[in-house]
Specification:
Bound molecules: fe (ii) ion
Radius of gyration: 20 Å
Shape: globular
Helix content: 40-55%
Strand content: 5-15%
Structural class: alpha/beta
CATH superfamily of the largest domain: Dehydroquinate synthase-like - alpha domain
Oligomer: single chain
CATH topology of the largest domain: Dehydroquinate synthase-like, alpha domain
Largest sheet: 6 strands, parallel
Number of strands: 8
CATH architecture of the largest domain: Up-down Bundle
CATH class of the largest domain: Mainly Alpha
Length: 400
């Protein structure tokens, strides 16, 4: 075992609670922290469900006031954040509880921190900015296993009326408590489970092979890969399976605990313009990119290549290199699709390659790509693989 290279490991979330039925722990938090004003920011899907009433009861039974805000069911834009900020500013909570997918958690994250950092939402974006802390307790409960926003230091918000994605990053913006309750993810339909789960898998794989990966992050990421390879197809095929849901939820959190330090790689670099320019769902975009990206990276993975392949294959019951295992998993989740069905024109693919190369995730990709390399990867994504090894598709692009 070689001595570690210098590294930096970041972790901001102070408590992670995991249990089926962990929603009840909100009552304990209200009691032990003596919380008086609970603001629930909840995914619109859960707005009129039992979840909201349970939180209300847990708050009011412990003498706390309760108010609820449900942002629209879409990726947040600056107006969404502004509306949430107004709600929070008016209610003056001492606890902000976000329950939902990445969009809801990101909305609450940015809106809450803007309370202590007055200013324009768009102008406050940027990775190099550290926000002043807000005194309220911030709790996140994810309802999908995907973004890891419950522990990540980042948030993404669209600039309203444009294709521009604003990125925020601050340890002071991050949830202090993450509550993982697999029962909340039981209602996610299979297509959402598959896409969100593939986002989590892409986080785990890209963080494991990142140039900033370290002995602190490797245990998180390889464990996340193993759990997702084994349990994501089960959660997809058996939506009511609480154990499978829990494994995926835990894996998505583990991966995000790592990517706070490692950043991501070329798959996310390609997924970003696919989302911004063509509105391809983030998980679907990652599923399009990850097999070809992993095949491209293979020669630079060193000792990690076989470890990654073993983790993917032991979980999925597949054999072969890492890229082929990822491709098989993608097929089981009905995500073996081709880019051509979403992005047909050559100049649009060129724009994706050019935008991807400018991404902040490129420097941490294990193999440094040229523009021609990215073009080749994007070209290899054009058709479904249908059993073809991703490395072969990379060498023989669509139409070739
Ligand atoms: Fe992602």
């Amino acid at each position: 075992m070689t001595a570690p290279e210098p590294f930096l490991f970041r972790h901001s979330t102070r408590q992670i609670v995991y249990a089926a039925g962990a929603l009840v722990s909100i009552g304990e938090l209200v009691q032990t922290r003596r919380l008086r004003r609970i603001a629930l920011v909840v995914d619109g899907f859960f707005r009129d469900t039992e979840v909201r009433e349970r939180v209300r009861n847990l708050a009011e039974r412990n003498g706390a006031a309760f108010a609820v805000h449900a942002p629209p069911n879409q990726e947040p834009d600056t107006n969404t954040v502004e509306a949430c900020r107004e709600f929070l500013a008016e209610f003056e909570p001492d606890c902000v509880l976000a329950i939902g997918g990445g969009s809801t958690m990101d909305t609450a994250k940015v809106a809450r921190i803007m309370l202590s950092n007055p200013g324009d939402v768009a102008e406050s974006a940027g990775f190099d900015r550290e926000f002043l802390p807000h005194p309220s307790l911030f709790v996140c409960m994810p309802t999908t296993a995907g973004t890891g926003s419950e522990v990540s230091e980042m948030a993404v918000v669209s600039l309203v009326g444009s294709d521009i994605k604003l990125r925020y990053r601050s340890q002071n913006m991050t949830a202090e408590v993450a509550v993982l309750d697999p029962e909340l993810s039981l209602s996610a339909p299979p297509s959402v489970t598959a896409a969100c789960g593939f986002d989590a898998l892409t986080h785990a794989v890209e963080a494991f092979v990142s140039r900033l990966a370290s002995p602190m992050t490797d245990p998180y990421t390889i464990d996340a890969v193993r759990r997702l390879a084994r349990w994501l197809p089960v959660a997809y095929e058996e939506p009511e399976n609480v154990d499978a849901r829990g494994q995926c939820l835990l894996a998505s959190t583990l991966a995000a605990c790592a990517f706070n330090s490692t950043q991501l790689g070329l798959a996310h670099a390609i997924a970003a313009p696919l989302g911004a320019l063509h509105h391809v769902a983030h998980g679907v975009a990652n599923a399009l990119a990850l097999p070809a990206v992993t095949a491209f990276n293979e020669s630079c993975l060193g000792e990690k290549g076989p470890v990654l392949a073993e983790a993917l294959s032991s979980g999925a019951g597949e054999t072969g290199d890492a890229a082929s295992c990822i491709a098989s998993l993608r097929e089981r989740l009905s995500l073996d699709r081709g880019l051509d069905e979403m992005v047909g024109a050559e100049e649009e693919r060129e724009a994706i390659a050019v935008a991807a190369l400018k991404s902040g995730n490129i420097p941490t990709n294990p193999r440094k790509p040229t523009l021609d390399d990215v073009r080749a990867v994007v070209s290899a994504m054009r058709e479904p693989l249908q059993g073809m090894p991703p490395a072969e598709r990379l060498l023989r692009p669509a139409g070739g």
